[in-house]
Write a structure and sequence with these properties.
This protein is an all-alpha fold and 274 residues long. 72% of the residues lie in helices and 0% in strands. The protein starts with a helix and ends in a 6-residue tail after the last helix. The C terminus is likely disordered. Belongs to the binding-protein-dependent transport system permease family.
C-alpha cells in the first residue's frame, strides 16, 4: 500500500514535492491544532499590542494582546478544513451530476447543463455576500456557499470527461450487458476520470481558500473569537504601517498554502489521462 505512494512522491518534480510538503504541513497544523497551540484561541497573553517576536511569543501579539502563533494555528484549522470540505462537496456533487447527464443524455443532459450554466453566471463574491447578509455568518453556511459556488465549474470539467468516456467501447459493452447507470458511473467511468478530478479538486481547494479569506477580510467570514487566516489579516490591519507580524504572518500563511497547492496541482497534471 505504501510503496505506490512512495513511488508517486518520488516521481514528482522538485516543485511538486515542495508543494506537497507545504500542503501536508498545513494539514498537519490544522489537524493537530488542539495539541500544539500554546494558548487558547481567545486568551489574552500580553499587555502590549503588536509586540515583536520573543522567546515567549514567537510571532508576537495581535491588536488585543493575543498570541499570533496560536491564532494562526487555530485559524489554519478553520481555513483548511472548511476549504477542503467545500472542495470535496463541490467535486462530489458536480461529478455525480455530470456523469448522470452524460449517461442519460437527451433532455436530462440539456436541463442539467442549462441549470449549471445559470448557476455559474452568478458572481461568486456577490452571491456569498448576499447569503451571509441574509442568513448571518456560520461555519455551516460558509461551507454550503463555497460548495454551491464551485460545483458548476467542476460539472463542466467532469461532463467533458464523461462525454468522452460514455462513447467508448467498454461503456457500451456495460450498457449492452444491462448494467445500471450507477454501476456504469462508479465502476466503468469514475476510475478513468480520477486523475483529472484530483487536479480539479486541488484547484477548487485554492479557489475556496481565497473566497473564504476574501469574505473574512470583509468581516463576513468566520466570526470572533474564532478566526481563519483571512480574518486574522483583517482584524490586525491597523498594524500594517508598522509591519507587525500579526498581519504579515497570516498573509504569508495564506500565500504558502495556496502556492503549495498550485505547485502540487501543476506537478500531477501530466498524469491526468483518461
Amino acid at each position: 500500500m505504501m510503496k505506490p505512494i512512495f513511488r508517486t512522491v518520488r516521481a514528482l518534480p522538485l516543485s511538486g514535492r515542495i508543494g506537497l510538503g507545504l500542503v501536508l504541513f498545513w494539514i498537519a497544523i490544522a489537524a493537530l491544532a488542539p495539541l500544539i497551540a500554546p494558548y487558547g484561541v481567545g486568551t489574552f497573553v500580553d499587555e502590549e499590542v503588536f509586540s515583536p517576536a520573543s522567546a515567549r511569543l514567537w510571532l508576537g501579539s495581535d491588536y488585543l494582546g493575543r498570541d499570533v502563533l496560536t491564532r494562526i494555528i487555530w485559524g489554519s484549522r478553520n481555513t483548511v478544513f472548511l476549504a477542503l470540505g467545500a472542495a470535496l462537496m463541490a467535486v462530489a456533487i458536480g461529478t455525480s451530476v455530470a456523469m448522470l447527464a452524460a449517461i442519460r443524455g437527451g433532455w436530462t443532459d440539456q436541463i442539467l447543463c442549462r441549470a449549471m450554466d445559470t448557476l455559474i453566471s452568478i458572481p461568486s463574491k456577490i452571491f456569498a455576500l448576499v447569503m451571509v447578509a441574509a442568513f448571518g455568518s456560520s461555519m455551516t453556511l460558509l461551507l454550503a456557499i463555497a460548495a454551491f459556488t464551485y460545483t458548476p465549474g467542476n460539472f463542466r470539467i467532469s461532463r467533458a470527461l464523461a462525454m468522452n468516456l460514455v462513447a467508448l467501447d467498454f461503456v457500451q459493452v456495460a450498457r449492452a450487458r444491462g448494467e445500471r447507470s450507477f454501476h456504469i458511473a462508479l465502476r466503468e467511468m469514475l476510475p478513468n476520470m480520477i486523475h483529472p478530478l484530483l487536479a480539479d479538486l486541488g484547484l477548487r481547494f485554492v479557489f475556496v481558500v481565497l473566497l473564504l479569506s476574501g469574505l473574512s477580510f470583509l468581516g463576513l467570514g468566520v466570526q470572533p473569537p474564532h478566526a481563519d487566516l483571512g480574518s486574522l489579516v483583517r482584524e490586525n490591519i491597523s498594524g500594517l504601517s508598522s509591519g507587525a507580524l500579526a498581519i504579515v504572518a497570516p498573509a504569508v500563511a495564506i500565500a504558502t498554502l495556496t502556492v503549495g497547492a498550485n505547485l502540487l496541482i501543476d506537478a500531477i497534471k501530466p498524469g491526468a489521462k483518461t
